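Notes continue from the previous slide.

Worked example: a multi-chain complex. Inputs as given:
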Amino acid sequence: MSTPATPHVPAAQGCTITNLHKSYGDVEVLKGISVDVKPGEVVCLIGPSGSGKSTLLRCINLLEEPNDGTITVAGFDATDPDVQLDEMRAHVGMVFQSFNLFPHMSALDNCSIAQRRVLGRSRDEADATSREHLEQVGLAELADRYPDQLSGGQQQRVAIARALSMQPSLMLFDEPTSALDPETVGDVLGVMRQLAKAGMTMVVVTHEMGFARDVADRVLFMDGGLLVEQGPAREVIGNPQHERTQSFLARVLHPDGTVDG
Amino acid sequence: MAMSPRKRAQTSRIVQYAILIVAAAAAAFVTDWQTVGEKFFNPTVALQQFPGVVTTALKNTIIYTALGFVLALALGLLLALMKISSVGPYRWLATLYIEFFRGVPALLVFIAFGYAVPFAFGIRLDTYVTVMLSLGIVASAYIAETLRAGLQAVPKGQYEAARSLGMSHTRAMISIVIPQAIRIILPPLTNEIIMMTKDSSLIYLLGLTASQYELAKFGREAISSPEAGLTPLVIAGAAYLVITVPLGILARRFESRTAKLSRP
């Protein structure tokens, strides 16, 4: 990967979640979660599948509607029924596990379409911004390629560039490397490290414990719809206090049952 | 003697071809070609069909089908959007409409708009309006299902990605979902036009003036004189093929293009 240009984050903002509840029918997925993410902070959400971490992330930009609780994000009261939802989402970048690039558009157009249709930028202005961010993720040369001509890792980096092109003040990552071939995971994590270093507020659902330990300011461990344990990354991953955190980390870090000595 | 499977397949193929050739030869032998030529392929009668079969009948078939299709597409899109709407009554209404018009014979709908509706309301519908309504309303029920399937075939993540970038529901549909759905929809939609071209023959029910005849009616009128034989119907049938075969080729081309685009 070519050396990325130094990214700049215009105005990182935080997000405050208070007593969040979410149910699907009779199943309660989030049972009262409160989290405060400070501007520029990198928070990793870890936990077993079904623990509610992706749901929590998707509640932040209201892709899932919470049943109870409040969320303020990027200066918007997300749970206010009168919130300007589209305007709020334009300030909150999101990266999905399955990339969700628009297959009928080139990488460049993927990055430009929302700038033009949502922010009202001209094509030239939007394309210039897009190229800048494609350069930042190391894909300037592949701007004219279509998603099906790109590897998984490249697609995910385009997806990151697409989100950055809206100049968000906060980024959400929903298991961004879970669908990738092992050899392309590093490129995506590299881009995310750069972004974290540049001061972007990031909330990352991930199973990459190495990334969480090195990059996150704080790690939250979720299980059964509850926030079980949180703290500085090295402490939670290196020295978990709660029994459920310990058994989860043991399984993730040593899947074959071995313990390194 | 034991035969290898490949040898056996080859023998079986040869036998099948042999039966086919014998059957064709027998049919050719017993057929009275003289009569067939006279009744079905009489060149004098065939020539008499021109230019009317093209300038009136073929033209009208295309016009009726096009009118019906425009209405069917507009109604179908509305119904498809209602069918995937989160508003319950919209979904129920759309389902009711679709099930009704897919369930009743098209012939009944033509009779309804041709006779029953004008009679009941004491109005006189223009022939073109009647045709557009009957053809369009029946086809819209089928097209609605085609469009709905196409819209739902676009992965949900596409819509979510668009919304997460700040696009409104309408913008996300226009810029992201519908363009992808169109590629999925084009082949079945082309087949739908082929069906409509043939369904337009039901117009024979309506009291048409000669200048309003479409292919089927044109052919039926022409065979009413005893000396014409069935040649006019053969010509009319061939004229349908002039429309439907190229459409069929087009549909297959769309299909192969869609297959290429959706490669992983």
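Summary box: Residues 1-5 of chain A have pLDDT under 50 and may be disordered. Residues 182-197 of chain A form the longest helix (16 residues).
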